[in-house]
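ugh ok so i messed up the first submission bc i forgot one of the chains. this is the corrected input, ALL of the components this time, i swear. 592 residues overall. if the numbers dont match what u have on ur side tell me asap before i send this to the collaborators (the ones from the other lab, u know who)
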Amino acid sequence: MNAAAQTRAPVKQSRFMRRALPYLLSLPALLMCIGILIPFFTAVYYSLLRYRMNLPQMKGFIWFDNYINFFTDPKFWNTVYISLTYAALTVGLELLIGLGIALLLQRPSRFNNIASILLLLPLMTAPALAALMWKLMTHPDFGILSYLLTLIGITNFKWASDPATALFTVLLVDIWVYTPFIMILLLAGLRSLPKAPFEAAALDGVPRSFVFFRITLPMLMPYIITATLFRLLDSIQQFDIIYAMTQGGPGDKLLVFQVQAYLDFFQATNVGRSAALMIILWAITYALSNVFIKQWLKLRERAHGAG
Amino acid sequence: MDHTSTLEKIIRAALITLVLVFFLFPIFWILLMSFQTNETILRIPPSLNFTPIIDNYTALITGELRTAAGSLQLNFMQNMWNSVLLSTASVALSLLLGVPAAYAFARFKFRLGEDIAFTLLSFRFAPALLVLLPLSLYFKSLGLTNTYVGLIWVYQLICLPLILWIVRGYFEDISPDIEHAYRISGNSWWRTFLKVSLPLARPGIAAAGLLAFIFAWNNFVFALILASADKQPVTVGALAFVTASGIQYGQIAAAIIISITPTLALALYAQRYLVEGLSMGAVKG
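and heres the new structure output, hopefully the right one now
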């Protein structure tokens, strides 16, 4: 990065100090996190155990049996299915809506700027509390949304307590909280695009759909990919909204990875299964985050190069 | 863009209004609920015609809740204090540890430097429960369960990666020549860091600190697993409150409003930093 900073030190400083300095500066932060690395390895170890807290005498090393059992476990495949559905639907919908809003607010006017700031508020609301807010609004007795539905003739809509609409309800909360995140990133992206191609297209009278699909979208793509990967990483791990709304219910309708692992650990006290589940989720997020970090660094380099 | 037709303007305005209604209505509605008695909340059809009361808020502040089953002691203000303490202390500690480390990663190329930086960033993306579940067993044997120290330590998982990566970007933007000029005139490395580098990176530090505070405040799962009622922040406290108070909807709404006001106010007050921080320096240019 800055080799020059190292090679000619203007003030005399012992060689040892010069070499040790970066380590000394980053060591405290690292030490703080090492305490967190230990539980990670413990989780790997637990995932290889038969370990139920209610049956301590059964505890023993069983290698990969926890993982192998998953293959024939319909509960596990339900978890995978629900988690992937949840992640795909939230990120897909948030991307579409977020892009739409960003395009609406693209022109920097006073009104648009105020609107984009106000749209940050849901993002700043704790997801667990957002779920409670929506729980109050979808309450069967007095919820304003339930009432509004009766106005258009839909009565007895049970929102999160009906297996058929539970996913829809938590999706709504997730969209409410996180769409502004995508909107903010894409708005920043849109406003940083070079003006020249658009002016040339306008001068030539190119149709606007053509401009959007052939100029705007390709140029915005790095931002879209970054936002998507970032949200995907968070969404596949969603816990707060679902736990606060239904604790994974009704039935097994919303048992995503982390909620299932939580229940395995604290209700079924099956530590081994819970740990194995988390390791699988970790493997998914690790693969995703590697792609994400590479993409993000590329975008960063571009922004720095241009700016 | 002067050739936009009137029809298009109207459609745009309508769409923006729709968007604003969807995203702002829930906050507005819960705010209204928090000033109502249960009787006016339960009316059908819902109506905006009510005399606002502040009883819900006074009940929360005094901790004396009247429910159908009688009077109930519920110390929501303790949750509020826990949130303030946990978020503030965690961010302070994170800044203390993270800013020098961010500087090291930005300025020096050193063995393992990039590996350490990646490891720290990857914490941001690891599933929280992967670490929390084993940690809850360790905390029990270490006596850290339900202590502020234990929670503040775990909150570093949220704050530290954020501060490290945002602040690092800002340090990288500062030209090393400025630091050199200052050092050539006889100042020590430490003095240069304090007098030149830190002030120049201040917007980044502010953005990172602000964002870390909001994320720490909004965190739910850490305290759900590692703390009991007396140390829990508002996010967990509010959920317990719903279970305990049953059908006191006005008070639930008031508790939600009290809990979200600090982060919303901070966001509005410092929105410029917030937007910069959210894009994590990725879209600076």
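quick check: Strands of chain A lie at 49-50, 60-61. that seems consistent at least. The longest strand of chain A covers residues 49-50.
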